[in-house]
Write a structure and sequence with these properties.
The complex is a heterodimer of chains A (about 425) and B (about 425). With about 425 residues, chain A is an alpha+beta fold. Helix content of chain A is about 25%, strand content about 30%. In chain A, helix 4 (about 105-110) runs antiparallel to helix 5 (about 115-125). Chain B has about 425 residues and is α+β, with helices and mostly antiparallel strands. Chain B folds into 2 domains: about 40-190, no CATH class; about 200-420, no CATH class. Chain B has 12 helices and 17 strands. Chain B has helices at about 20-30, 50-55, 70-80, 105-110, 115-120, 130-145, 200-210, 220-225, 250-260, 270-275, 340-355, 410-420; strands at about 55-60, 65-70, 90-95, 105, 155-160, 165-175, 180-190, 215, 245-250, 265, 285-290, 295-305, 305-310, 310-320, 355-365, 385-390, 400. The chains are: A alpha+beta (about 425), B alpha+beta (about 425). At the A-B interface, helix 1, helix 3, helix 4, helix 5 and strand 5 of A face helix 1, helix 4, helix 5, strand 6 and helix 11 of B.
């Protein structure tokens, strides 16, 4: 038996043990003074409104609630809003996480009509975030979200009468590897200031984007992988909140524990949000940020990887990347991580799906398509690094985000590929063929 | 072909033929999931005449949309595979674009969890059948709706959606250069025994023949909403119904579109029929199913016996069941969670993100009830009902107008200012 097979057997054994482990016992809530998550809260101010957030670790949420929330995939986010405006604001929990847990739903999980059910329900209710934030007031509370590992992008939409404020804060969660923390520091000084070009006109930007490499590569740069079919223009204040609002999450860095969990997920079909995203290379480095949108379970999730490019567009950050649609997980011998994903060979479909998804995000202001990927017809598909075949019209989508919300009826379609009909011209030709 | 795969739940994957011991092991483990060996043959060309006869259609700004949900039998004839059996509801759509603009059908607005054609095709692949799999891919790809729809062109094709029951509220958003052309159609779902009530078309018909007053003044509407019944009665005219805590005002198609964009589906169960208002069961019930398929939230609505500027006024119960996603009970056993305000506030947020909510206000009329008074009635509430006005034109979050009616949480707000509500415990 190979070592891989032994590993699999050991893994299955371990899983059975986990499943057979039975219910966890719960200690009474500890003294809340030991809870120090507020000490590391991160803050942001916009005008007269200041927000602070902190994501609780598994240990902290057990202390605060008296229950192992993390074991049920629940992660409390503590939020404080200081409202110095003259209007009341509403915080939209659905913007933080479209699948967040109402406090009463989680209380039900632990109360279950046992003794002390009323106290448990009251505790969850007391800790829960409550709207609105009146003018001049400071309000804090907890929103219960789905568990993220390592880093969480906390996205806050505050709505008032005819007005809206959006905040996005990266929170690091104790108890996971701090890769992202070091990475963020590195991102800040990725390029010397004089190496970054700020493009002021659409045409110059378009030319620069067309001249990017066709594809990601392996580590040594000797082989081409997935096509670079995505350009996101925007930053932590507009592009990333848009992604989070529609259910996209940063992923944990790939590491062995995550691969183990992924294997179990692939074998048993349980829903595990954190499949590892194996590294692909551009600019001589692995992706700066990988995000995924989980669907029902690991078999169905869409992935995107982004690299910060040494360019700006009218002062906005430019991120270059790759998106593909998973149509099922499978085992492959081509990835050192053993488990990878079967991608939809029609990679343009994934690109369109993201574009459509972002149209509903409130922050997408313009869409364009540029060349640079190089067409690969259905009859002669190319292969990525794990030999998944793909075909494409050779275009990359450019999504421009803005802090000011844009309604569906006001999204600008840039007249780039094909002057006459705008970007869709190329696609029309493609479907006509 | 046997339906061995539940794609929507993603139970299984197909391993590649044995490459290493580990893969063989995995293959053996998964073999139990494979109960039949599939073969696929390209079906004959499909005659869509019957489909067109029963398709629903609408015309907006020089664009005609027609659509129908495919029955399992039609799916088998069209695709040569049991697509419906795999947990997918194929929807046939035809767009006649008579405008001078190129339009893009936003599938994410029709179904946030739609499947790509090759994703569906892949689930019917068989190992070691390269050519047949390729033919299957090509067939599915050809039948799928192709974006974009060029000016003065007609395009037809299938969207592979997640299943809706009884009636599919089909939302179709066509995006062009700085324009959006939205549609809402109500499609019967074949292969299901349709109940006599619960159809959206019935509520539209009821609205059309309604003889009640048509309020032109916002204050008059507010007064009428305050005086509306606090709660439903039970079927035997006794007390004990759930509170009426939301009101939706607008064209029925706009209300439906907002719900669909946020993943609600029409579905009425027996327990819903026990709630009676104006002497009848709810006109329509929609549910939002959470990830993992557990029942998470419902909205039951009744058409009110009055209008506002000719528009429909729907009185509703927004609530969610005890247990929610974590409940192990059968979906039919739905017990009201007593914290109905939480569910109401969550529903407001959903409408805010729908792009259709123009304004929001609160009125009294439910009757406040403290948590310790919930015994007997099964809920507690601040006594307010949320009134939401929806429009066709897509809006952003910053367009929302808040009506200066009853301030939400007036008492709690006063407390909060005094104490800076649990900001510094």
């Amino acid at each position: 038996m190979t070592s891989i097979a032994k590993f699999s057997l050991a893994l299955i054994g371990a899983l059975i043990l986990t499943v057979a482990g039975g219910c966890a016992t719960v200690d009474a809530p500890a003294d809340r003074t030991v809870v120090d998550f507020k000490g590391r809260a991160v803050s942001q101010r916009d005008g007269n409104v200041r927000v602070s957030t902190s994501v609780l670790s598994a240990e902290e949420s057990r202390e605060l609630y008296g229950f192992p929330l993390a074991e049920n995939g629940i992660q409390p986010v503590w939020i404080e809003v200081e409202n110095g405006d003259e209007l009341a604001y509403w915080l939209l929990s659905l913007g933080l996480d479209p699948n967040f847990f109402p406090a009463s739903e989680v209380a039900d999980l632990y109360a279950r009509d046992g003794p002390g059910a009323a106290e448990i329900e009251q505790r969850f209710r007391q800790l829960a975030w409550r709207n609105p934030v009146p003018p001049g007031a400071t309000v804090s509370g907890v929103v219960l979200t789905n568990l993220d590992e390592g880093v969480k992008l906390v996205q806050l939409d505050l709505v008032a009468d005819g007005r809206m404020k959006t905040f996005a804060l990266f929170n690091f969660i104790p108890g996971f590897r701090a890769d992202f923390a070091s990475k963020e520091t590195r991102l800040a000084d990725l390029y010397p200031a004089d190496a970054i070009i700020d493009y002021a006109t659409d045409d110059k930007l378009r030319t620069a984007l067309e001249q990017l490499p066709c594809c990601v590569t392996n580590k040594s740069g000797s082989r081409d992988g997935d096509p670079l079919n995505l350009v996101i223009i925007g930053s932590v204040q507009d592009a990333f909140p848009a992604l989070v609002r529609r259910g996209w999450r940063p992923t944990e860095q790939t590491w062995f524990g995550s691969v183990t969990k992924m294997m179990s997920s692939a074998l048993f079909g349980e829903r595990y949000r954190y499949a590892p995203v194996s590294p692909l290379y551009l600019y001589g480095r692995p992706q700066d940020l990988a995000m995924q949108k989980a669907r029902d379970n690991i078999h169905q999730r869409n992935h995107l990887r982004l690299w910060r490019a040494p360019m700006l567009y009218r002062g906005k950050q430019v991120w270059v990347g790759q998106i593909s649609r998973d149509i099922g997980s499978r085992l492959t011998i081509h990835s050192p991580y053993l488990t990878t994903h079967k991608i939809d060979p029609d990679v343009d479909e994934a690109r369109s799906a993201l574009t459509e998804d972002m149209a509903y995000s409130q922050n997408l202001s313009a869409i364009g398509l540029v060349g640079g990927v190089g067409a690969a017809p259905k009859s002669a598909p190319r292969g990525n690094l794990t030999t998944d075949p793909y075909y494409t019209d050779g275009l990359r989508v450019v999504l421009i985000f803005d802090v000011r919300p844009t309604s569906l009826a006001d999204i600008d379609v840039l007249p780039w590929e094909g002057r006459q009909g705008g970007f869709v011209e190329q696609s029309v030709k493609r479907t006509a063929q | 072909m046997k339906a061995t795969i539940n794609l929507a739940k993603g139970y299984m994957q197909r391993p590649r033929p044995g490459i290493s011991a580990a893969l063989l092991l995995a293959a053996a483990l998964l073999a139990s999931a494979l109960t039949g060996c599939a073969t696929w043959h390209a079906p004959d060309k499909f005659d869509d005449r019957q489909l067109r006869v029963r398709a629903e259609s609408a015309t907006v700004r020089d664009v005609k949309l027609s659509a129908a949900v495919l029955s399992a039998e039609e799916s088998r004839r069209i695709f040569g595979a049991d697509v419906n059996g795999a947990g997918i509801q194929p929807v046939w759509v035809e767009v006649e674009n008579s405008t001078s603009h190129t339009l893009w059908l936003l599938r994410a607005g029709t179904d946030p969890d739609y499947f790509s054609p090759l994703e569906v095709a892949w689930s019917f692949h068989t190992p070691l059948a390269g050519e047949r799999n390729a033919a299957l891919d090509a067939h599915f790809d050809e039948l799928a709706l192709q974006n974009p729809i060029p000016p003065r062109t007609t395009r037809a094709g299938v969207i592979f959606a997640t299943p809706h029951h009884q009636t599919r509220l089909l939302n179709v958003d066509l995006l062009g250069q700085r324009r959006l052309i939205p549609f809402t159609l109500f499609l019967p779902v074949p292969d299901e025994d349709e109940p006599e009530d619960g159809k959206v078309v019935q509520i539209m018909a009821r609205h059309a023949r309604s003889q009640g007053p048509d309020y032109r003044d916002l204050e008059a509407l507010r007064a009428a909403l305050q005086d509306a019944p606090c709660c439903a009665g039970s079927a035997d005219n006794g007390p004990g119904g759930d509170p009426v805590n939301v009101v939706l005002v607008g064209e029925i198609a706009d209300l439906a579109a907002a719900l669909v964009r946020r993943g609600f589906r029409a579905q009425m169960s027996e327990s819903d029929r026990e709630q009676q208002l104006f002497g009848r069961a709810p006109d329509v019930v929609v549910r939002k199913v959470s990830q993992g398929g557990a029942p998470a939230f419902w909205l039951r609505v009744w058409l009110a016996p009055f209008r506002y500027h000719g528009q429909a006024v729907l009185l509703g119960q927004a609530a969610r069941p005890v247990g929610g996603r974590f409940a192990a009970t059968a979906p039919e056993a739905r017990e009201l969670h007593p914290d109905v305000d939480e569910a109401r506030n969550l529903f407001i947020q959903d409408m805010m993100y729908s792009g259709g909510l123009a304004s929001l206000g609160f009125v009294t009329g439910v009757g406040a009830r403290q948590a310790d008074q919930s015994a007997g009635v099964g809920y507690f509430t601040d006594g307010l009902r949320a009134v939401m006005f929806l429009v066709t034109r897509p809006l952003t979050l910053s367009d929302l107008q808040l009506l200066d009616w009853v301030p939400l949480l007036r008492d709690r707000t006063a407390d909060a200012v005094k104490e800076n509500r649990h900001a510094k415990p």
